[in-house]
Amino acid sequence: MLWAAVLYLALILMTALFQRSLIYFPDTTQPNLTNAPAGTVPITVETADGLTLHAWWLPPPDGTSENTPPENTSDNNAANDAEIIVFFHGNAGNLDHRMPKIHDMAARGYGILMAEYRGYGINDGKPTEEGFYHDGRAYMDWLLQDKNIPADRIVLYGESLGSGTAVQMATEYDVKALVLDVPFNSTLALAKMRFPIIIGMDFLMKDQFRNDQKIADIGMPVFIGVAGQDMVVPPAFGRALFDAAATPKKLEVYPMAGHVVLNEFGFYDDMDLYLAAIDPDTAPTQTAQSETGATTRTD
User: Fold this and answer.
1) How much is the pTM?
2) Could you identify which of 1, 142, 221, 280 might form a hypothetical disulfide with 177, taking C-beta atoms 3.0 to 4.6 angstroms apart as the criterion?
3) Which CATH superfamily is domain 2-62+81-296 in?
4) What would the pLDDT profile of 12-34 be if each residue is shown by its tens digit?
């Protein structure tokens, strides 16, 4: 019994010490810009805690590629209503690994800010939850202040772990919509599922990404997609997040999809329709159809 207790305590200690290596799996090689859609340019942003982050920016087809003087912003953008996707990717790899999704969105006419986190690609720093929020704010401020993009054209997009940053940004910035691709209610809930023998996870875990405690206070339209065959973030976790969200909201279930491949099963078609239904006169707080239901794709 004594040895069992010692081994169990050692397991808890190891989990506590190395927990972030179980959450973040960055590729620290430099992403290849030539893999991105034509017109993509590299950018840098400065975080509040002093990091310079490197990311990519694809201006929308309307030509919003250079700074617009604030006094002319509304006039110049009156006819330029292409949405800007702020893309926060998942926990593994770097931007290079998201190019199929980025090309798909670019082909649909979206502008895309491809955010890259601290500790990923060539960026300095170490990945943490609070660090990711600093990174997200730096990218949002770059769009809103440096590029003068109207908030009602911005769509926050969170893929898997990126849903944590996207949800947090949605609590701080009032934009057109929040799109979540195989999200979770919290990494704490996922950790409890993966490591049920470890007690005290609520106190041990540093980066809990409590989407479930934040999403009810978000007033913008929320579109969530979950994958029926997801073994990384089982669909129950995305459904739980949807249940916690305020309206207007919509859930699409893709029974045959696995983790982070919803774009291969019609997710972007459904996203297009959802974003198009948002009433421009009342955005970002209502949708024309006030969708609150869940549907399942059968194709």
Assistant:
1) 0.89
2) 221
3) Alpha/Beta hydrolase fold, catalytic domain (3.40.50.1820)
4) 777 777 889 999 999 999 999 99
